[in-house]
Write a structure and sequence with these properties.
Metallo-beta-lactamase, Chain A; 7-stranded mixed beta sheet; 11 helices; 14 strands
Length: 317
């Protein structure tokens, strides 16, 4: 399978438009080595012809334009070609798989409304939030046909041509900003509100785990990581109190639903011993010093065998 990181930043992107923290300042004035990033999403393909998006960020337009294989009329090898009239609006995006109903993972759906239709995979809790909470579903359906595929954690689901996924529940205590009555009933203890995906190339057995949001690496979540070749995991904050120290928020990373990288019980401590070929942080907040390529925090990650995702990174699994 082929994997393309479309966006590697957390909500707001990097730099964030309303932030003057040292990390954002550094990329704006080129005072330190750093690269701008769009909001997190990846594309996965079994054959480099048909692609499945995991989350649809508000930056989806720029992300499609930056990757020729996603553009309308793209040649099978992804190089692009001049389409005839019948192909001029045919795109190789087959479906969007949602990990939750957060705006930075779903607003891009509205930007895909000009297509002939959308197939969206989501849990019942996420769909209910998008319908009765944010009303995004009702708005989208006013523009194009939408085929919803219910995601059931623990169930293997084929995507076509040898690619399949199994979603798994990611427990969270974060209070949802938008919540309908039905979503509250199903996800009262966090069930179905946040999920991760384990994608498998059934021809080779190679597996990728996409986990852009995780509050705690519980035993059940850790079991889903076993045997995967690549892990793309939540790297939102370096420290638990990072946003508090900068005066950007009154909440810790954990209170916002994200396990910090550093510190006792942080993701670095738990992930570094795991025998996974590629362990890559994604969904990185604009305040996180690992975005600075010369930062000591970046060297710490490298010494422990972990990487930092960048927009445009391609992997073959």
């Amino acid at each position: 399978m082929w994997v393309r990181v479309l966006g590697s930043a957390a909500g707001g992107g990097y730099p964030q438009w309303n932030c003057a923290c040292p990390v954002c300042h550094a990329v704006r004035d080129n005072s330190r080595p750093a690269r701008s990033r769009t909001q997190s999403s990846i594309a996965v393909s079994p054959d480099y012809r048909q692609w499945f998006l995991l989350n649809a960020s508000p930056d989806i337009h720029a992300q499609v334009e930056s990757f020729s294989a996603l553009r309308p009329g793209s040649a099978p090898d992804g190089s692009g070609s001049t389409p005839d009239d019948s192909e001029s609006r045919t795109v190789p995006i087959r479906a969007v798989l949602l990990s939750d109903a957060e705006l930075d993972h779903t607003l891009g759906l509205l930007l895909l409304r000009e297509g002939r239709g959308l197939e969206v995979h989501a849990t019942a809790a996420a769909r209910d939030t998008l319908c009765d909470g944010t009303s995004l579903l009702r708005t989208l359906e006013a523009y194009c046909p939408v085929r919803w595929v219910r995601v059931v954690p623990g169930r293997d689901t084929p995507l076509g041509d040898g690619l399949s996924y199994r979603a798994f529940d990611v427990p969270t205590t974060k209070r949802p900003r938008f919540e309908s009555g039905s979503a509250s009933k199903e996800g009262g203890n966090g069930e179905g509100r946040v999920i991760g995906y384990r994608l498998t190339d059934v021809r080779t057995g190679g597996a990728l785990v996409y986990l852009p949001v995780v509050q705690e690496l519980t035993a059940s979540v850790r079991r889903e990581l076993a045997g995967c070749a690549c892990l793309l995991i939540d790297g939102t904050c370096w420290q638990d109190d990072e946003l508090i120290r900068l005066g950007a928020s009154g909440k810790t990373a954990r209170e916002m639903g994200h396990l910090p990288i550093s510190g006792p019980g942080g993701s670095l401590e738990q992930l570094s011993p795991l025998p996974i070929d590629r362990k890559i942080y994604i969904h990185i907040n604009n305040t996180n010093p690992i975005l600075l390529e010369d930062a000591p925090e970046r060297r710490v990650l490298e010494q422990h065998g972990l990487e930092v995702a960048v927009d445009g990174l391609e992997l073959q699994i």
